[in-house]
Design a protein that fits this description.
Elements lengths: L19 H9 L8 H11 L4 E6 L5 E5 H17 L7 E4 L5 H12 L3 E4 L6 H11 L3 E4 L8 H14 L6 E4 L23 E6 L9 E5 H14 L7 E4 L6 H5 L2 H8 L2 E4 L5 H11 L3 E4 L1 H14 L8 E5 L5 H11 L2 E8 L2 E5 L6 H6 L3 E2 L5 E6 L2 E5 L5 E7 L11 H11 L6 E9 L5 E6 L3 E4 L2 E4 H9 L4 E11 L3 E10 L7 H11 L9 E4 L12 H18 L1
Parallel strand pairs: 1-10, 3-4, 3-5, 5-6, 9-10, 9-11, 11-12, 12-13, 24-25
Antiparallel strand pairs: 1-2, 7-8, 13-14, 14-15, 16-17, 16-18, 18-19, 19-20, 21-22, 23-24
The structure holds ligand J2J.
């Protein structure tokens, strides 16, 4: 048994946090406890040792079923393997794994050894991964071989080059596919002594800027949200949760998600893909009681269930969140998918709203829930005069502050100074960028968005980022990305482009250029519109934003014509 070696990496950076008086208050109220994630892993894997913790596939495609005791051992084994790559206590490690059981072993292994996971998605490419590794000064990048035809070794090389360009030491590549089954490798690593207020992991922000924003989370505030969520959702040892969304997204991670289930001693079933066919088979076979979907998936599942009449009798709750759920689809959830609908409106920065089991149907169908905590502060303000709160029922911009909402993003001043100043008010409220109406019961209905972001099937894309990459092309004189209404995706990405006179209009070429630039596929525009002139905007206003609005209106009009 060894204590982890000292890292050659920088220590985690300080970041804006709750004030001392508030921290004391949350602890005195019993909301925040001294439990760290290392403690959490050890305690739950012992407490529920004989229960089934995880059902899923490993990265070789083999079916795996782990008890909590197995999961504890797998986490210890993963820690040992990670240490043999040089990963040490306090190191940041970018994890970009699909929904395979190794994902859980790696994440719990990192928690156990006091290292800090950075939760990337397997769809991220060198631009995103390069930024995460640079901002976090990551010691390692964890991937699996070539599940979807991506050359991860090549990807690691590209990421490393980008990171080195920024003067940061590139991450070590950890390919879990190379881990021999059962082969421990390295020397066992002790459970780290981690404080509950230390940086525990970095989560990704949906993004409104071309530069990734990393969200710093600590055990005391995050585990509070996990416990509160598990309680609201009634999780216990009989809970069987099917995870179809990418496991590292904040929704399936903690609302109440995988961590909620592990907290309560239930079973996590990892779906290798989100298709209704796979989902329905797993629900029937594993007697799944709860699952979390984004609206387009809910729609696809409803339509498939109508045709196939699968056995969904075990399903008690169907959570839908990540993007606005259409009222019509909402009404079909319970009759067709059998489970009661729970709307979830959350954000990786903090605030999560749930409709409750005992809410009247009308609220469940037409609102996105109310805050999970009595200590969540919600302000709905006039977007043009944020000092003025609007009355209930009126649309306004949502600001929030509370026991598990962050006070600032993570990273050196060059990454965070401007963005922290614009994303948070002086008194610590997070500007969510969402427009909502508040009901007298405290429930919120999301009515729109006041941020430069496209929500494509729950995946958030910063318009800035797409535009920046298009503008980098010589033949592109101007580019604006807009989200157009889409019956299935909610919104799809349309890039409106003004080309140099005489340049040929080749949409596939532009899409390919973004892909080869190293942008995640979900950010590639679904369509391109070429204009010789962009509509004129009022001078002095934030012209890009106004342009985007004008173009959205124009294009939406054309769609309905
Ligand atoms: C409308 N918009 C929604 C909803 C999120 C639980 C659930 C979701 C997320 C998430 C999460 C919405 N209706 N029901 O982290 O823990 C949009 C809003 C919000 C943004 C946050 C969780 N649910 N949204 O989606 O960080 O615009 O988190 O501000 O990815 O998604 O995105 P993200």
């Amino acid at each position: 048994m060894t204590t982890p070696t000292r890292s050659t990496r920088s220590r985690a950076l300080p970041y804006p946090r709750h004030g001392e008086a508030e921290r004391r208050r949350f602890r005195e109220l019993g909301l925040w406890t001294p439990e760290s994630f290392a403690d959490f892993v050890v305690d739950r894997t012992r407490r529920y040792a004989a229960n089934t913790a995880v059902v899923g596939r490993d990265c070789h495609g083999a079916e795996v079923r782990w008890t909590y005791a197995d999961l504890g051992q797998q986490a210890a084994l993963a820690a040992r393997r990670l240490a043999s790559y040089g990963v040490a206590r306090g190191d940041r490690v970018v994890v970009a794994l699909p929904n395979v059981v190794e994902y859980l072993a790696v994440v719990l292994g990192l928690f156990r050894m006091g290292a800090v996971p950075v939760f990337a998605l397997p769809t991220h490419r060198e631009i995103e991964l390069g930024q995460f590794c640079t901002i976090a000064d990551a010691a390692a990048l964890v991937v699996v071989g070539d599940p979807d035809g991506t050359d991860h070794r090549g990807l690691h090389k590209l990421v490393s080059d980008r990171v080195a360009e920024q003067g940061v030491e590139p991450p070590v590549l950890v390919d879990v596919e190379e881990w021999e089954r059962g082969d421990a490798g390295g020397v066992a690593v002790e459970v780290a002594d981690v404080a509950a207020d230390e940086l525990a992991f970095l989560q990704l922000s949906g993004g409104t800027t071309g530069i990734s924003k990393l969200i710093p989370r600590a055990a005391e505030e995050y585990l509070y949200s996990v416990r509160a969520s598990a309680e609201i959702c009634g999780l216990d040892q009989d809970t069987v949760m099917l995870v179809v969304l990418p496991a590292s997204h904040n929704f399936p991670m903690s609302s109440p998600g995988i961590l909620g289930v592990l907290h309560a001693g239930g079973t996590v079933v990892l779906a290798p893909d989100p298709s209704p066919r796979t989902g329905f088979a797993l629900i029937a076979r594993e007697h799944v009681t709860v699952t979390a979907l984004v609206p387009p998936l809910a729609q696809a599942w409803i339509s498939a269930a109508r045709r196939r009449r699968p056995d969904l009798s075990s399903l008690r709750t169907v959570q839908v969140g990540g993007a606005k759920l259409n009222d019509v689809v909402a009404r079909d959830v319970e009759p067709v998918l059998h489970g009661r609908l729970q709307q979830v409106f959350g954000m990786a920065e903090g605030l999560v709203n749930y409709t409750r089991d005992d809410d009247p149907d009308e609220l469940v169908l037409t609102t996105q829930g109310r805050p999970m905590s009595a200590y969540d502060e919600v302000r709905v303000v006039d977007p043009d005069d944020p000092s003025r709160e609007v009355t209930d029922g009126q649309e306004g911009a949502l600001l929030t502050r509370g026991p598990y909402t962050i006070r600032g993003y993570y990273g050196g001043p060059s990454w965070t100074e401007a963005v922290n100043a614009s994303s948070f008010t002086e008194d610590g409220f997070y500007r969510t960028g969402d427009l909502v109406r508040r009901h007298p019961s405290g429930h919120l209905t999301v009515t729109g968005r006041d941020k430069d972001q496209i929500n494509r099937a729950g995946e958030k894309i910063a318009t800035d980022e797409i535009e920046g990459h298009l503008l980098a092309r010589r033949e592109v004189l101007d580019a604006v990305a807009v989200g157009l209404p889409d019956a299935y995706l909610g919104e799809r990405i349309c890039a409106v482009v003004r080309l140099e006179p005489g340049a040929e209009r080749r949409p596939e070429e532009l899409a390919e250029a973004l892909r080869t630039a190293g942008l995640a596929t979900y950010k590639i525009p679904d369509s391109f519109v070429f204009l010789d002139d962009f509509p004129a905007t009022h001078v002095g206003k934030n012209s890009r934003r106004e342009l985007r609005r004008l173009l959205t209106d124009q294009l939406a009009d054309q769609l309905t014509d």
